Amino acid sequence: MSTALRTETPTAPRWHDFEGRERLVARDVVRSLTLLLRDVLHWTGGAGADDLLDNLRATLATDGPESALPLDAVSGAVAARREVGAQVATISEHLVGWVVAELAGSAGEHGQPAPTRSRCDGHPWTPAVQRLLMGTRGGPEAMQGFNEFLHQVVLLRDALVPFTNWQEVPVLVGAGDGTGLRHLDGAREAFSVELMVRQVRATAVVDLARRAVEGRSGPQGYGFTSPHGTVLPAVVGADPLEASSRLLTWHAPGALALPRPDGTTTAVPALGDYYAAARTPAAELASPSGAAVDQAGSTAEGGSFALVPTPAAEPGTCTVGLRPAAGAAVDLGQAVRGHRYAYRAAAGDRTAGDEGVQVLDARAVLAAPGLVWAPAGTWAVSAGGDPALVLALLGKLYPENVVLVPGGGWAALDGVGKDGTATFLVLDAARA
After folding, report:
1. Is the pLDDT of residue 75 over 70?
2. 316 and 176 share one domain
3. Global confidence as pTM
């Protein structure tokens, strides 16, 4: 892929100050990119700032003729697209606000702008910007500078989409070659196509996140760790009832007590095909006569957990064990997969009775060989208010019809999950 932003002088490009700083958080990237917008305003004689900002808003919107990611135009608003769309809107609003704040502040001293060469990336201009840049106040320098500014902000916005804590993520900004975030072109295009035409795969979200932080792809997995931090599904260390099942969270190096690797290690599930995994019948684990278990007994350590990585067969990969305070360790890959497939219930979904609900002990479920399964019936297991135990249980229950339930009651549910198969209820007593 051809590069962009080559200056006509032998000196370094003046539109950003990335040199010497390999990775920057989003706010600092915007500060540098706004230097390019200042250059555009230099070429236009200071005219059209509001029009240029309106075009930026239109480009970052999810609808309209200028949108770089027109999600609102796609029929069949699947859950993944709705969640990603909300994330896109939030990030876009912040980026625009930061650009406005930068323009309103001191212009700083970054020298005479150097003409910028920018490959056309198909970002439409609003009519007002067309008149500005193609009129007497515009010209090739202003046109190409604004093209590049729009594209760099789009690349930044989309690179941040995978992360719940996107403002904290250290984004790779190049090595002073003048191309900025252009190394993300291919990854951004692939992710955009997937988002527009299909259910978004978890591996695609991880790949875009890895390109943003590490600048390269790698084995498919559900997360990765490197000297620049660890990226795992957002549910790890969070409330499974509230956490996103599609987005990721970046953790600073050492924050999760994982070994700091020399290179990048991809986290992969221990079970590549969970359909073929061994199964333990739930009936073998049920409490006598359906008696309730002591729900408070599983929270002695306040919901703490440990992550235990083990090298996997493929070079550069590992499996990760999730060990909650109460119970045996489970594969984190299967746990986050179970969380992605689980249904969520609200308190209002619960019916009055508990007839026919059979109770399982959480420790027995975690210690069972393979995955716990049943051909029929309703089965309930309490996590005792421990979010790490909830996630661990999701790594042991066959992920066909598992429902996360707030509160500690055993009542059956109506209208949640699937019909015609066994239902497993994972209850969080802390929400009773």
Report:
1. no
2. no
3. 0.89
Which residues are paired to 24 by β-bridges?
171
177 versus 167: the higher-pLDDT residue is: 167
Within this chain, do residues 47 and 195 fall inside the same structural domain, yes or no?
yes
Residue 260: inside a domain: no
Residue 88 shares a structural domain with residue 163: yes
How many distinct structural domains can be found in the chain? 2
What is the span of the domain harbouring residue 310? 274-431
Report residue 120's pLDDT band, with 50, 70 and 90 as the boundaries: confident
Instruction: Count Cβ atoms within 10 A of the Cβ of residue 230 and give its class: 0-12 exposed, 13-18 middle, 19 or more buried.
Output: buried
Buried residues in 318-339 as b, exposed as e (16+ CB within 10 A)? bbbbbbbbbbebbbbbbbbbbb
Strand 229-233 and strand 248-251: the pairing is antiparallel
For the cut 80, the answer to whether the pLDDT of residue 431 exceeds it is: no
As beta bridge partners, residue 248 has: 163, 233
Give the list of residues 6+ apart from residue 420 with CB closer than 8 angstroms, or none.
none
For strands 343-344 and 402-406, give the pairing.
Answer: parallel
Give the residues across from 232 on adjacent strands: 249
Looking at the structure, tell me whether residues 158 and 288 fall in a common domain: no
Q: What is the residue-wise DSSP string for 42-104?
A: HHTTT--HHHHHHHHHHHHSSSSTT-SS-GGGSSS--HHHHHHHHHHHHHHHHHHHHHHHHHH
User: Residue holding tokens 């200042």?
Assistant: 38
Q: In what order do the strands lie in the sheet with 402-406?
A: 343-344, 402-406, 423-428, 378-382, 357-360
In this prediction, residues 285-302 reach a mean pLDDT of 45
Distance CA 86, CA 228 (A): 27
3-state secondary structure of 321: strand
Is residue 183 domain-shared with residue 278, that is, in the same domain?
no
Q: Which of 217, 236, 253 is the endpoint of a domain?
A: 217
Residues 284 and 180 occupy one common structural domain = no
Residue 5 lies in a domain: no
pLDDT higher than 60, residue 138: yes
pLDDT in tens, 79-96: 777 888 899 999 999 999
Tell me whether residue 268 is in a domain. no
Question: Would you mind telling me the total number of residues written for the chain in this entry?
Answer: 432
CB 138 within 8 A of CB 43: yes
Residue of 238, 255, 359 lying closest to 303 (CA atoms): 238
Residue 253 lies in a domain: no
**Residue 399 and residue 306 share a domain:** yes
**Whether the Cβ atoms of residue 339 and residue 394 lie closer than 8 Å to each other:** yes
